[in-house]
Amino acid sequence: MAAQAPAIEVPTDAELLQAQADLWRHTLYYLTSMGLRCAVKLGIPTAMHKLGGVTSLPDLADALSIPASKQPFLGRLMRALVTSGVFAAGGKDESGAELFRLNPLSRVLVDDVVADEHHSQTSFVLAGTSPHYMEAALGMADWFKKDVAGPVPSVFEDVHSASLFDESTAALDPELDALVTEGLEAHDNLGIGTIMRECHDLFKGLESLTDCCGGDGKTARAITKAHPHVKCTVLDLPKVIEKTPSDCVVNYVAGDLFHTVPKAQAVMLKDLSCLRPRLSWTCSCLSSPEAANVAKMTGVISS
């Protein structure tokens, strides 16, 4: 006789209603990311900035050349993004139309602006919500069921036969490769001004620092400008370094952090919250052996 399945615990009415609400939230939350991507692709933050940072729906639709038939749907998108914290809303114009406003989050998504400490994060959004990322996420269940010998590939590698931050990404999709590179540089540069102001003491006694995956060197140059006594080295892939203009302030090294890291008193990984040798979200994207290898080379753990 087949074994009977264990009895299931029946939720209370309150628990059931909460579970249903949570289920809807988790199932449909991807629409928030897609709505954010849509806003960036349409150029909504930039259009709002050009309109003074505050705009009505009709004015926004006109600035974006949105057909009148789609204006109600644009309103739904904006209200959804207000709810998720991407934009703010409040007040009405002379005609009684609701006003939408830029907030700190949407301001970092404004393009075509040259200003100190403004580093648009649109590439970061477009890379993170790209179809390649979505396809990889949809392949997770199949990935878990595959038993493979040797190094376990990431889900992205398994689905696309390409590794992020590798030459194979460019072969897979040059546009994605460029977005990933630009997105990481923008992410790195976003908080460096705050670090210079709020974490000034971290650089006391520091003479050398290696910025792993430092891109165009904006972060390293900001450090040397504020702390001339610190010798900064930027390590990145050859395809990135070859596009970087040489200067006498920062030393640029073409290489791969998985193979060798230039020696320095401190190594900066992708987590900019603290400039000292440590594991960061860079390693969390990797398999355990890769993360351990990076940690050994940067001095986070002993070899």
UniProtKB/TrEMBL annotation:
* GO molecular function (one): O-methyltransferase activity
What's the domain of life for this entry? Eukaryota
Show where the O-methyltransferase C-terminal domain sits. 142-271
Q: Do you know which PROSITE patterns this protein is assigned to? A: SAM_OMT_II (PS51683)
Among the record's GO biological process terms, what is one? methylation
Task: Write down the InterPro entries for this protein, in alphabetical order.
Answer: COMT-like, COMT_C, COMT_dimerisation, SAM-dependent_MTases_sf, WH-like_DNA-bd_sf, WH_DNA-bd_sf
Spell out the coiled coil positions from the record: none
Q: Which UniProt keywords apply?
A: Methyltransferase, S-adenosyl-L-methionine, Transferase
O-methyltransferase dimerisation domain sequence ranges: 24-111
**PANTHER family referenced in this protein's UniProt entry, alphabetically:** O-METHYLTRANSFERASE
State what protein this is by name.
O-methyltransferase domain-containing protein
